[in-house]
## 1
Amino acid sequence: MAERFYLTTAISYPNGRPHIGHAYEFIATDALARFKRLDGYDVFFLTGTDEHGIKMLQSAREQGISPAELARRNSAEFEAMAALLGGTNDDFIRTSEDRHVAASQAIWTKMAAAGDVYKDAYSGWYSVRDEAYYGEDETELREDGKRYGPQGSPVEWVAEESYFFKLSEFQDRLLALYEDNPDFIGPAERRNEVMSFVRSGLRDLSISRTTFDWGIPVPGDEKHVMYVWVDALTNYLTATGFPEEGERSAYWPADLHVIGKDIVRFHTVYWPAFLMSAGLPVPRRVYAHGFLFNRGEKMSKSVGNVIDPAALVDVYGLDRLRYFLLREVPFGQDGNYSHEAIVNRTNSELANDLGNLAQRSLSMVGKHCGAKVPTPGAFIEADTAILTAANDLLPKVRTMIDRQELHGVLAAIIAVVSEANRYFAGQEPWALRKSDPARMETVLFVTAEFLRRVAILLQPFVPESAGKLLDILGVGPDARTFNELTPDVRLAPGADLPAPQPIFPRFVDAED
Ligand code: ME8
């Protein structure tokens, strides 16, 4: 039976419409999910919306609607974004769903039964934008007389009765988790930050509120609603059917949570501590990507300057956007995007390197090989070298995928495509047409077979264009997994090919 692989995005706050940061995280996770599926895994890919908390309540008040209505409207936008981005998520969870209320109350009950929950009075600093409690030492008083948290968002003083989680008692178990599982947190700088945060000592965590009711009621004490992060993190369990045993239970523990760098503490400190308390296995890996900036300008719903992902798809097309986002910015680091960067990157690599190679070779196949897969003669060293370079890609990129080095995967593939362009130019098949037509067929066969291998590998990243390239290579829908990349699988000489069509056209500015 296929090995399972469960991966998730963070669930977004639907207090506004989706922005490019959400699209970025979703596209990256979708590419990982597609890669794993093609590589033979039984994948479960989850995304969704995080609908409770004060941030949602405040946004709803500002708009004069109920938080449930705000969540419903914007959650639909997030679901539409997932579809627009070619998302292959297997489920879309909303934390206002009944199944999630049941799961959150079940994990709470388990933590309470373990003796890790107690009632006390809370007073301290809270950031609504981050939905986070901060110690006074993590905040700063600025010249405007207001206090701000470590991520630059304003904090307010909160004092009320609250349930607490005994986080302070999990310090040793958490440090042991990080030490015994060096891959639990990636990239390395995030792991180091978390370890020094936990080493410096943990305070118990306030996990309920009484001053509003937009949340999941605490079992047995309905005056309290759960702190939004207790319920939010539990979404990953909810989708596996928790607390019931069912078909999806076997996906837990999750193999990978893909999140942004601003929410690492919640996923690598609070979440494993909640799970340990509840006696449940912890996820295998949490990977934090960086932030995307519009030419250095931070975008978020709370700050404004939001760029609509749908508009970007409209202008550039989905595959250009997917390719650019995953190729341009090393995953894990912050990065910029701009119109020029998108156009330059996709024109030079997709249109010039890959598109031209496909266009030039396959139009020759169409004209001079009777629109059939060419019949090769004996290979010379250059032929074997370029096919070997393509064969060597899978083991190489597989390792990078397991470290979420998406940019590295695309860099490795495009480097081999450049090599193939040099091969094609060096062999001059257009000159061979008269001087040595048999050799021309060999060069065209090698190039077509090379393109088949590269197109199969590119499917997770540019699904539509890679699919089209496979169509014109005559590769059927059931011959597109990584099983078809073993050295013995090849295009069948003499097989009929459909008419070639351009796969990666250049992007031309409307005003040009
Ligand atoms: O944090 N660039 O929701 P959210 C890259 N509900 N990534 C970005 C980004 C940007 N400019 N802006 C946001 C939440 N993100 C919680 C998560 S999970 C149990 C609960 C990322 O809507 C951000 O880092 O503020 C996070 O991973 C995701 O988008 C959702 O952010």
Note: The chain has three domains: 4-110+228-289, 116-209, 348-496.
## 2
Amino acid sequence: MSTPRVLPADRGVAEAAAVLRAGGLVALPTETVYGLGANALDAPAVARIFAAKARPSFDPLISHLAEAAELEKLVGTVPAAVAELAERFWPGPLTLIVDRPAVIPPIVTSGLETMAVRVPDHAATRGLIAAAGVPVAAPSANRFGQLSPTRAEHVVAGLGAAVDVVLDGGPTRCGIESTIVDARGDRPVVLRLGALPVELLQEAVGPVLVRAGSSGQPVAPGTLAAHYAPRTRLRLATDTDPADGGVSRQGFLGFRGCPAGDWAAVEVLSSKGDLTEAAARLFDALHRLDGAGVDEILVESVPEVGVGRAINDRLRRAAATWT
Ligand code: TXA
Ligand code: MG
């Protein structure tokens, strides 16, 4: 497999912007995970994203802006609660739902009359979007259903030459995708748990509903029950583990540590028990365990508070692929 051009994020912006304007694909760092970006106004370029990821056409993309001030220029006046959340949390790991303006082609939103939009908290990528002069549609830069990329190396290994340029900004700071909120109605609704904790949202705007991860039809179309999965079988650890006859080589993903056992590979997310650090390391640790040649990865859930809720959400979906 041939490889894409990898450029350092601070020096590659002008070249990457030219690629976007020419209809190409640029993998870009954000504070959450790497995105696979294309000019959101260019339907054929956006179609290349779906092809590169083998992403089903029913799963809409998030459009990225350089500045919060660009939102009203793109979509006109937005509901007060949406404007308030944008003002409070952008740039940052919060995606908001707004009405789709006519300039955004329906392929971006999978035909929905709403669109998802955010301003990522990453200087080079905001510079890139500003230099390209267009909104940038970008899903996570992995093949559909697989582990999200938190390093440029993950993107190169997963997508290869399907990407024209990879901007390498090093490991991403948050390590987990943005929180998606629909604040157009009476009460904001969280559609996907993510790097911005629900508790912080509630401090800012009062009570919110969490509809992410409930059973039945997913509200954010991409939040399928089985997602974010390594190639290796993955299972949530229970109190009766680790003794598991028949499984010869097991890997363990622990929060603060690891139970005694004959593990073939071990990753610990945060020995000091810090959930933010754990989120930042989650996908990288899973990528490493996936490459460790084990038969099964056993994972431990983390405390169900703050960003821990989003971590557990990712672990449950990864495990659901194998059940
Ligand atoms: O942190 C992130 O959000 C990263 C970085 C690159 O910005 N992007 C990301 O994109 O996670 P992706 O494509 O992996 O996930 C986008 C999610 C999907 O679950 C999709 O269904 C949902 O956003 N979504 C997009 N448009 C939507 C809409 N109009 N209504 C509801 N959900 C929407
Ligand atoms: Mg994704």
Note: Confidence is low (pLDDT under 50) at residues 214-218.
